[in-house]
Amino acid sequence: MALPQQRRKWWKLQWFADQDTKEERRLILKLDLLIVPYAFLAYWTKYIDQANISKTPQAIDSTSFC
């Protein structure tokens, strides 16, 4: 019977491949720092927008804004 593998902590996940050079690891880190904040903001904006739309009263007609 095989022993179950222990779950790794999230901060101990291997982010880079073993064969990546120092320059490649630095590039990956820079790209992550560039992309992740924008992805977070896009997701957060979408969430806020959906939450606001779902709380509007059903009696309001979408054509009455003109």
For the sheet with most strands, the description reads: none
Query: Which ranges are low-confidence, i.e. pLDDT below 50, for 5 or more consecutive residues?
Result: none
How many beta strands in the DSSP annotation? 0
- Rough shape? flat
Strand content: under 5%
The DSSP helix count reads: 1
Could you say which structural class the secondary elements and strand pairing correspond to?
mainly alpha
Average pLDDT, all residues: 80
Radius of gyration: 22 Å
The percent range for helix content is 40-55%
How would you spell out the order of helices and strands? H
Report, as a whole number of angstroms, the end-to-end distance: 70 Å
Q: What is the topology?
A:
Elements: H1 22-54
Overview of this protein structure:
The protein is mainly alpha-helical. The protein has a domain at about 20-55. About 50% of the residues lie in helices and about 0% in strands. It contains one helix and no strands. The longest helix is centred in the middle third of the chain and has 33 residues, at about 20-55. The N and C termini lie far apart (about 70 Å). The relative contact order is 0.06.
